[in-house]
Write a structure and sequence with these properties.
This protein is α/β, with parallel strands linked by helices. It has a single domain, classed as L-arginine/glycine Amidinotransferase, Chain A. The chain is about 25% helix and about 20% strand. It contains nine helices and 15 strands. The strands form five sheets. It has a three-stranded mixed beta sheet with strand order 2-1-15, with helices on one face. Strands 3-4-5 form a three-stranded mixed beta sheet, sandwiched between helices. The longest helix has 16 residues. It starts with 19 loop residues before the first strand and ends in an 18-residue tail after the last helix. It binds arginine. Arginine (ARG) binds next to loops.
Length: about 300
C-alpha cells in the first residue's frame, strides 16, 4: 500500500490518537458555474480574499482539535475546497467519489493521487453510479450504520457498493429539496448519538427511516431558517461542533446536550452551496474523531471569528 502514514494505522485505531481531517486551500475557489441553486445569482460574486480569511478561521479552529492534512488546490477546479466530496473513508479504505456533474469530475484524479500517496486503499465507484463521498454518506456516531443520501447527485444504486465495501447497514435517504442537494446539508449524526436534521428535505419514507432509528429525544429538528444557514453542515469532533452562524435557540439546544458550539462566518462558501462540513473530510476512524477531548480556547474580544 505504498508509504504508510499515521492514519493508515486506522485498522488498529486508538481513541487517544489525534483525529485527522482533509482540507484544501481556497486559492482557486470561485463560483464559476451553477450546479446547485445556491450558485445561481452568485457566479463571480464571491470574494477570494474574504473566502480565504473565512477558510483560515475554520482551519485554525479545527487545528486546535485535530491534525489537518492539505491537498494541493488545482486551477480549473474551483469547488475542490469542498473536500467532503472527495470520497468516504473507513478502515484505511477510501470509496473515491464519482461526481455527477462534469464540472467537478476533474477533481477526481487529484483526490485519487492524494489518497494513494497517503497510504489509503482506493476503491472506485463506477461512473454510471455517481457517488459524492461524505457529502452524501455519513456514518452513525458508533459506526453501526451508514446514512446515505441520493437524488440530486449520488445515485441510489451506488449505495450497494458501499454495503459491499464495508459490510455495514446502509440506510438510503431520498433528498427532495434542491436546496439540500447533499445529505450533509440537512442531516448530521452527532457523537452524542443525537442527530440534527431538516425534515422537509426528505421524502416521507426516508423521514420514517430516520424516526425508526432515532428516538424522539435524539432527534433535533432544525427550522428552515437555520437549515438555510447550513446549521446541519457541522463538523463534530468529540464534544465540539464547528459550523456557520446559527440561531441562539439551536445553539442553546446543542449546548444543553453537552456540546461546545463554535460559530464561524462562512458566508463566502454559502454562495457555492457549502459551509463547514463541506470544507472538511474525516480521515480518522470514528472512535478517534468522536473521542471526548479538550475544547477550543475561548475566543478573545478581538477575535472576530467567533461570536
Ligand atoms: N459547489 C459545490 C457543489 O455543488 C458545493 C459542494 C458542497 N459540498 C457538500 N459536501 N455539501 O458540488
Amino acid at each position: 500500500m505504498g508509504t504508510l502514514r499515521a492514519f493508515d494505522g486506522s485498522l488498529s485505531s486508538h481513541p487517544h490518537d489525534r483525529p485527522a481531517f482533509l482540507m484544501c486551500h481556497p486559492k482557486h475557489y470561485e463560483v464559476d458555474y451553477v450546479i446547485n441553486p445556491w450558485m445561481a445569482g452568485n457566479v463571480h460574486r464571491s470574494s477570494r480574499q474574504r473566502a480565504t480569511r473565512q477558510w483560515e478561521q475554520l482551519h485554525s479552529a479545527l487545528r486546535q482539535l485535530a491534525r489537518v492534512e492539505l491537498v494541493e488546490p488545482q486551477p480549473g477546479s474551483p469547488d475542490m475546497v469542498f473536500t467532503a466530496n472527495a470520497g468516504l473513508v473507513r478502515d484505511g479504505i477510501v470509496a473515491l467519489s464519482s461526481f455527477h456533474h462534469r464540472e467537478r469530475q476533474g477533481e477526481e484524479p487529484h483526490f485519487r493521487r492524494w489518497f494513494s500517496e497517503s497510504g489509503f486503499a482506493v476503491r472506485d465507484i463506477p461512473r454510471v453510479t455517481p457517488f459524492e463521498g461524505e457529502g452524501d454518506a455519513l456514518f452513525e456516531a458508533d459506526g453501526s450504520r451508514l446514512w446515505a443520501g441520493y437524488g440530486p447527485r449520488t445515485r441510489v444504486d451506488s449505495h450497494q457498493h458501499l454495503t459491499e465495501l464495508w459490510g455495514v447497514e446502509v440506510v438510503s435517504l431520498r433528498l427532495v429539496d434542491p436546496r439540500f442537494y447533499h445529505l450533509d446539508t440537512c442531516f448530521c449524526p452527532l457523537s452524542s448519538g443525537d442527530v440534527t436534521y431538516y425534515l422537509p428535505a426528505f421524502d416521507r419514507e426516508s423521514q420514517l427511516k430516520i424516526e425508526a432509528r432515532y428516538s424522539n429525544k435524539q432527534r433535533i429538528q432544525v427550522a428552515e431558517a437555520d437549515a438555510l444557514r447550513f446549521a446541519c453542515n457541522a463538523v463534530n469532533v468529540g464534544r465540539t461542533i464547528l459550523l456557520n452562524e446559527i440561531s441562539d435557540e439551536l445553539s442553546a439546544e446543542l449546548e444543553l446536550r453537552g456540546f461546545q458550539i463554535v460559530q464561524l462566518d462562512l458566508t463566502e462558501f454559502l454562495k457555492a452551496g457549502g459551509a463547514a462540513k463541506c470544507l472538511v473530510l474525516r480521515l480518522s476512524e470514528l472512535d478517534v474523531t468522536h473521542a471526548d477531548r479538550s475544547r477550543i480556547a475561548p475566543p478573545t474580544a478581538q477575535d472576530s471569528a467567533y461570536n
